[in-house]
Each structure stands twice: as structure tokens, then as C-alpha cells.
Specification:
3 helices; mainly alpha; about 0% strand; single chain; elongated; about 80 residues
Length: about 80
């Protein structure tokens, strides 16, 4: 079960790759430079937020796993 959780957490990171793909698609679009710049800045901000959230989530997961295995050894 814990390995399923780990895989699901790792799969969440694909959202940042999806945002990056949209950024690349926008760069080849016909938006005017101001609209393009604004859209890309927003997407980069979204990607940065999710990267930070997932990093925090992963650290928490590692901490929980560490505590779990310490408790398991103690029994």
C-alpha cells in the first residue's frame, strides 16, 4: 500500500510537465507578444507553485516512511 502511495505522489509531478507543454504550445501560437508574455508568466508561476507543493509533499512522505520503519523495527 505504501508503494502505491509513493507512485501516486510521483505521478502528481506530471502536472508540471503538462504546464511546461502548454508553455511550449503557447510560444508557437499567434498571440501578440504582450498576451504571450502574460500567459507564459502565469504558467511559469503555476508550475513553480506545484513544484514547491510536491517537494513539500515528498519530504513529508519520506518523513512518514522513516517514522514507520523506525516504529516497525522497535516492535
Amino acid at each position: 500500500m505504501i508503494f502505491d502511495l509513493e507512485q501516486q505522489i510521483l505521478q502528481c509531478w506530471t502536472v508540471t510537465e503538462d504546464v511546461k507543454l502548454v508553455e511550449e504550445m503557447l510560444e508557437s501560437s499567434t498571440l501578440n507578444p504582450e498576451e504571450l508574455d502574460r500567459a507564459l508568466n502565469l504558467l511559469q508561476g503555476i508550475r513553480a507553485i506545484y513544484d514547491a507543493r510536491f517537494d513539500r509533499l515528498w519530504k513529508t512522505f519520506e518523513g512518514v516512511c522513516s517514522e514507520y520503519y523506525k516504529l516497525k523495527k522497535a516492535l
